[in-house]
Amino acid sequence: MKARMIALLVFVSALLLGGCGQQPTVQKTEMVMDTVATLSATGTDSVAAVTEGLKRLKDLEAMASPSIEGSDVDKLTAAAGNGEWVQLHPEIYHMLEVSQQYSRLTDGAWDVTTGPLVQLWSIGTDQARVPSVTEIAQAKALVGWQNLELQPETQSARLLKPGMSLDFGGIAKGMALDEVRKIYEKHGIKDGLINLGSSSIYALGRNSKGHEWRIGIRHPRSEDKDATLAVVPISDQALSTSGDYERFFEQDGQRYHHIINPHTGAPAWTGAMGDTIVIDGSVEDAGMLSDLLTTAVFVLGPEKGQAFMEQLPEGVTGMIVDQQKKLHPVRGFEGQLTDRNEEFPIE
Ligand code: ADP
Ligand code: MG
Prior knowledge:
This protein is α+β, with helices and mostly antiparallel strands. It has helices at 46-64, 72-78, 90-105, 115-121, 133-140, 172-186, 286-300, 302-310; strands at 8-11, 25-32, 35-42, 86-87, 148-151, 156-159, 191-196, 200-204, 213-218, 228-234, 237-243, 248-251, 254-257, 260-261, 266-267, 272-280, 316-322, 327-330.
């Protein structure tokens, strides 16, 4: 599958291997988890941290990818409706626990069982098309987080209806940020960047110039892929974005994008054009939450999404860009932006 467009731009000064008297900095890039992953780290153990981090991403992909035979997702989908419990890797089990918690909190705006709808629309692939009302109703009947059961004692799960399937596209990369971060910690890395290409980043410490990492949020409508909406400096924080400009097609003036409203079975046309969420590293599962929340808040739309975020732990901030290009910041997030493009006024 072709790598997705890059939604975030990272302004990094040249990364050097070695350097007189300085700690070595290493950077490696690989295609994994359907994206271009770039890991960089500074520290005596940086080579080991980056190598092990990339290996971890491959291992997580093998657990979470629906197209890899024998993955946890593949097993769950294959067993859907037959009553059997499927034992999961602890990382995947934990991801489902968090996912279910947020499905409850968002009243199903976030729903990891959206698989049948994601497949039906196939947005971002050559098969993308507008399905019929009947097809949508049929797929929608197979979607519902209440029909995903978890069993903590055995770290197992099951899908209650035949034909159900899971889709981790809005959460797995975020979870992977947290997992790579643990590896960096083990190797004593204090400065580095875990960049999962199109939409999720965790920044540790400082960049090679000793400054916060500057993350550019892509302009959601510009043809110029380097144009930005704003720049967000971050340090020891996770940052994710979602938007209707990452994967979409247009037909009869309508934009069909890859974020699905499970309640309608169609792309979420709830007023958001994109959103960005920044979560402090002290918040548990910061990476996973940043990824999940960008999708969930996009579906909720600007007003409900903003109100929802205000109730979350204090380390969660961010903004929603609405279809009129107005920014809806949460917890004073506008103060964290630099180089804001004037096309995007603050509401
Ligand atoms: P990316 O940044 O990789 O494009 P996002 O974080 O924006 O992904 O999440 C979008 C992906 O999440 C979709 O491609 C799909 O796999 C999945 N998804 C879409 N709608 C929902 C939803 N309502 N709840 C959970 N997952 C969803
Ligand atoms: Mg997301």
